[in-house]
Amino acid sequence: MTTSALPAEVLDVRDADLVRDGTALLHRVSLTVRPGEHWALLGANGAGKSTLLGLLGALTHPTRGTVRVLGHELGRVDLRTLRSYVGHVNPRHPLRSPLTVRDVVLTGLTNSVEPVPRWRPTAEQETEADRLVQLMGLGHRREARWPTLSQGERSRTLIARALMPSPRLLLLDEPATGLDVAGREQLVERLDTLRTAYPELASVLVTHHVEELPPGTTHALLLRDGRVLASGPADDVLTGELISVCFDHPVTLSRVEGRWNVRARHRSTTG
Fold it and tell me: What is the pTM of this model?
C-alpha cells in the first residue's frame, strides 16, 4: 500500500450503514474530511458517535456504503497497515503497568499497550518522543509514571503517543472525559497548537460538549439516532437551533474568542 502522496480526501464516507445484531446503528452517513481540517462530531449518548469513529479509524466495516481512509477503501486494503497512518486517542487506554510518560509515548511506534519485548527505539525516535511530550506541555512530567498522572495528563500523553508514528489523521474519542476545568483548558490549548505544528494533519474529535472544542475547529457533524442531522463548516452547523434539535433540548449557543458556550433556553409559559 502506497500513501506517499496526500490524497485529496483523508476520509470519504458515502452512504454508510452499520447494522449490528439486527439493529441499525448508522444510517446513510456521509462525510468528507480533507487535509488540515479539524472536525467536531457531536451527538447525544447513543447517537452513534463512537460507532462512526470506529469506521473512520478502520476498526470496523460498514454493512452498506463505502468508507475510504487515506484513499483506500475498507474491504480492499490491509487494515493493519492502514491503521499505522491513523492516530486513535481513547481515554480508556487499558494500560496497567507503571510506564513513564515517555515510555507510553514510545508505544505509539509499535501500536501496542505495553512495550514490545526486545524492541528498542532509535535515538531519533527517543528525541521525537521527547519533542512530543514537550509539545503537549508535559516536559516536566516526562519521567512520571502512569498511575501518578492526572486524567488530563493522561489524555495529553495519549495524544503525544498517537502522534508518534506521524499519522495523517487523528481521531479523538471524548478526550476530555473526566477532566476538571483546568485539565479541560490545558487539553484544548494543546489541541489547538496542532494546527500550526501539523498544518496537513486532519482530525475528528468526538464530544457531547461544545465547550470542549478548540477554537481551530473548522467543521462539525451532528448525529442524531445514527443519522446525520447537519454537516459542514463549524459556523454553519454549530448553531443554537441545530444543537437544540440534536440534543432534543432548547439551548442558546454563543461564541466568544473562538470558544463555544451553551446554556439552556427557557421555554416560555403562559397563564
Answer: 0.90
